[in-house]
What does this fold into?
Amino acid sequence: MRKQIAAANWKMNLNLNEANELLKGLIAENVELSSGQEAVFAVPFPYLLLAKDNLKGNKYFFIAAQNCYIKESGAFTGEVSAPMLASCGIEYVIIGHSERREYFNENNFTLSQKIDVCLKNKLKPIFCCGESLAIREGGTQNDYVETQLKESLLHLDATEIKGFVIAYEPIWAIGTGKTATAGQAQEMHAHIRHILTEKYGNDIAQSISILYGGSVKAANAKEIFGKPDVDGGLVGGASLNASEFAEIMRSLKK
Ligand code: PGA
It folds into this structure.
């Protein structure tokens, strides 16, 4: 069975004290995950080591960066590289979040380079894809997501993509309180898995975790995660509250 993952995306929120409080709160929740389940915490760069240190007692908890640069080192003021993250013991990196695509002009080609530099440094990318409201209303969301996958991901070979993590996040559902229905999520996840099956065969496609993101909260997590091709979620707003996120972790399929 592929991994079931609850990933917290703190985005650019919380000061140091607040981050500490949230980490303490998460530990106090005593969430018991089981083998095959993971929780991933994508925290802002200054808090990566703090989060790693605080959460190291739980073997199912992992730390993620929210981005990294395409180059490994050099004169790129303000950027953070994959080797730096790896040397800090960080396990995951979110790649291609729609906010990075929108505000920082990241395109499918840049993202393919970021995926490569992550893999080279043994970091696990969480590759985000998903369509805007205009595309959904035009009915071309399947083709749009397929192009995102083709241009950023499908150059990988079977060994590289085995066990990979993809997050489907329809942009119209992010931070809007408007969740895709569990049925809409399942439909797109099945489409993504179909694309992966055509390219890599069933075994590899079945090993890839596809997370849903967009207004996931404790109240809807169980229904969404219960769908056969939904392997957990990437959670923004609701991950900033310890008891809410704890409930979301507890909603993962066993
Ligand atoms: P949200 O964000 O849960 O606040 O909608 C999800 C995301 O952007 O990863």
Notes: The chain has one domain: 4-250. Residues 9, 169, 174-175, 213-216, 234-238 surround 2-phosphoglycolic acid (CB under 6 Å).
